[in-house]
Amino acid sequence: MTLRRLEYFVAVAEERSFTAAARALHMAQPPLSTQVRTLEREVGADLFDRSGRTPTLTAAGQALLPEARRILAAYERLATTARQARDGTTGRLRVGLVPSATAGPLPDVLRHMRSTLPELEVILVEGRPPELLARLETGDLDVVILYAAPAGAHLSSRVLAVEPLMIAVPAGHRFESVHEVTVADLAGEDLLLPARYGDDGLRERITTLLGGTPVRVIQDDLWMVQTMIALVAAGLGCAVVPAATAGTRPDVVRYRPFMDASTCLELVATWRDDRDLPMVARFLNHWAA
Fold first, then answer.
1. 96 with 137: CB under 8 angstroms?
2. Are strands 155-170 and 190-194 parallel, antiparallel or unpaired?
3. How many domains does the chain have?
4. What's the pTM?
5. Which of 28, 109, 149, 287 is 20 to 30 A removed from 71 (C-alpha atoms)?
6. Where residue 77 sits, what CATH number does that domain have?
7. Domain containing residue 282
8. What single string gives the DSSP state of each residue in 44-81?
9. 273 three-class SS
10. What is the pLDDT of residues 235-245, one digit of tens each?
């Protein structure tokens, strides 16, 4: 059974005439009739009742017609599907990220991608940096978003966004009455810190920001910025967080910028450059849009 014979069968069924179908297919009528007869032998049943002036579909022909149309339509889509995959406009993009990355421009990027690339499915996977990088290495993820560019063979990185760090304090804190603070103002404060993962990430940026400022570290193994802010809301301490999270729990948490600090946090995309992943390029381009 060939696609060509299915095409001949569908043409005769739709034209209800071997002569008209041959004309539409730009071929002679006898070869067309021969090919349809061959198809009938292959399926083991007559597809047309030829007893009248107009060929009509038999029960077998009626059953085969929608399936033949589906197969032919799928065949016609093959080239389009291949081109879309080549261009990164279809398929599935698996993005690993630290949870706090969703507080920045990412939601707007995903919204724009959904409107412009409806055939591209984006799957988000939250995790700790070491776990995300391990899954990137094995191919379980296509790109990861972290707060630092990791070193490694076949890895490429690009900065997606840069944002300053702010201090988050509970409502009623002494910083509530000021618009800006200095790093020195943090002296003696109870501070909540994120976990350290061995890279130049959020913990390292906060350490650089603090310099030698003496603070009381209440907890230093938190890995979600959202958890840090929740503990600030509970009055357990203060936390240095990315500016993009400053809208979280505004009823009970106050955010103040640093007037004397230039330390910023970089949101970085990392991917394997030894893999052909046009979808990653599409994703990166949307950050620049």
1. no
2. unpaired
3. 3
4. 0.67
5. 28
6. 1.10.10.10
7. 91-159+267-288
8. TS--EE-SSSS-EE-HHHHHHHHHHHHHHHHHHHHHHH
9. coil
10. 999 999 999 88
